[in-house]
Write a structure and sequence with these properties.
Elements: E1 2-4, E2 10-14, H1 20-25, H2 45-50, H3 54-58, H4 92-102, H5 111-127, E3 130-136, E4 145-154, E5 169-178, E6 183-187, E7 190-191, E8 196-197, E9 205-206, E10 208-214, E11 219-221, E12 238-242, E13 278-286, E14 293-304, H6 308-320, H7 326-330, H8 346-356, E15 363-374, E16 380-382, E17 385-387, H9 399-413
Antiparallel strand pairs: 1-2, 3-4, 4-13, 5-6, 5-9, 5-14, 7-8, 10-11, 10-12, 14-15, 16-17
Helix pairs in contact: 4-5, 6-8
Length: about 425
């Protein structure tokens, strides 16, 4: 299939199913450092020459103080200069599932290795992929809404997220609460029990949606007649959405295979052709009537590799087209399987793995919390002391209340009470 643009015109370009390498190539990480060959010491190796290669992240050098290339080398001779063949990416969940199915003593007997790979993938997601910032606008008494500003910065060498389009997404999950109470507002809420992401009006979901051009409606269709999302990547010929965050120094904004779709990323400077490597989202959080005190906003950046819609699509396709079980499908070519989807279709097997193994639980890549206050208009006086209304800000108490409290403490201690403006002598 070839790629159709936003008007349905055929570009003649083979459809770009995945372009992780091209994303890196169009970034600043592919910019060679100047090397003229005449300096006494030139940069050596890809990391020094290009700043960051695929291997520098996905095959990071060992930090083991005893690292060495072989037994003939001295211990520690390759510390910091021995790439480890972990080759991990973002898919920690399926690695764990494969380890559960086949990594035990009756299989590959590599449980520890699978666990280490899962941890390495999670470390990459949580430590080296993104940064998250949160700022709240000041509030005044009587305010009806709170403005929260969130910035996600891409720290990777490609778009974030990247890789296959089917089922992979990243999103912002935002909650607001008053005092120690439960959240009164949410955006991008995720139900762990069902694996359902609520895409409310303000939800920010980073993903690429590929579809099939519908000449009748003049749009890139990504759902079937029942409104269910479809993932026929082999027959896709258009891109409905691609708001994934570009990497640093990204120059692919005009490339039909790489450019954002459905979102505009500004240039770092006018005319540079280089897009910014971050995305800003502004949330308008409606406040309950009469809100006073501390309002806390919590933001989590979450990543998931297999969505409910994608896994259900695989199962539904197997049912709709009566796909046979694995053993029946392969009976003419090999002996029956003893593990895996022996008596099930591959779609049903995948669906049950997803259901029984956490529904591809999202990984929280980063999280931030911030608090602002709606200043209380009154205080409650009781037993010669002023008390803050429930849920009010600890730092807010009228000056008059503070003076009254101080006078009460002095009466109880028997110390003299200085007149206003006088200096205490006790």
């Amino acid at each position: 299939m070839t790629l159709k643009d936003a008007t349905g015109a055929d570009t003649g370009i083979p459809f770009p199913v995945e372009r992780t390498y091209s994303e890196w190539r169009a970034s600043a990480y592919n910019d060679p450092i100047f090397v003229d060959g005449f300096a006494p010491e030139e940069p050596r190796g890809d990391l020094a020459r290009f700043g960051r290669t695929c291997q520098s992240c996905h095959m990071a050098s060992s930090t083991d103080p005893l690292a060495r290339a072989c037994q003939q080398n001295a211990p520690g001779s390759r510390t910091g200069n021995l790439p480890v063949h972990e080759l991990v990416g973002a898919n920690a969940w399926i690695t764990g599932v494969i380890g559960m199915l086949y990594g035990g003593p009756d299989g590959l007997n590599r449980e520890a290795e699978f666990a280490r790979s899962v941890q390495a993938a999670n470390d990459m997601l949580t430590l080296r992929s993104a940064d998250l910032a949160l700022a709240l606008d000041p509030l005044a008494g009587g305010a009806q809404s709170l403005t929260a500003r969130v910035r996600v910065t891409n720290l990777s060498g490609h778009k974030l997220p990247t890789g296959y389009a089917e089922g992979r997404r990243m999103w912002l999950q935002v909650e607001a609460s008053i005092g120690a109470g439960p959240p009164f507002w949410r955006s991008g809420d995720y139900d762990e029990a069902s694996g359902t992401l609520t895409e409310d009006a303000q939800a920010k979901v980073y993903e690429i949606q590929q579809g099939i051009w519908n000449a009748s409606s003049g749009e890139c269709a990504i759902s079937d007649a029942l409104g269910r999302k479809v993932f026929h990547f082999a027959t896709s010929d258009c891109i409905r959405k691609d708001n994934r965050i570009p990497p640093r120094g990204f120059r692919g904004g005009a490339d039909p295979e790489l450019r954002p779709v459905g979102q505009v990323y500004p240039e770092t400077s006018p005319g540079s052709g280089v897009l910014v490597d971050y995305d800003d989202t502004v949330y308008a959080i409606p406040l309950p009537p009469g809100t006073t005190g501390a309002v806390t906003v919590n933001v989590r950046l979450r990543h998931q590799v297999a969505t409910r819609e994608y896994v259900e699509f695989l199962r539904n396709e197997a049912v709709d087209y009566a796909f046979p079980s694995e053993n029946a499908l392969c009976a003419p070519f090999r002996a029956p399987l003893e593990t895996g989807p022996r008596t099930q279709s591959r779609g049903q097997f995948m669906y049950e793995l997803w259901t029984n193994n956490g529904r591809s639980p999202p990984v929280t890549m980063r999280k931030r919390s911030s608090r602002t206050c709606v200043r209380a208009r009154r205080c409650v006086r009781s037993a010669m002391r002023w008390r803050r209304p429930a849920g009010s800000c600890p730092s807010i108490r009228p000056a008059r209340a503070r003076r009254s409290a101080e006078r009460s403490r002095r009466r109880r201690s028997g110390r003299a009470i200085p007149a206003l403006g006088a200096r205490a002598t006790a």
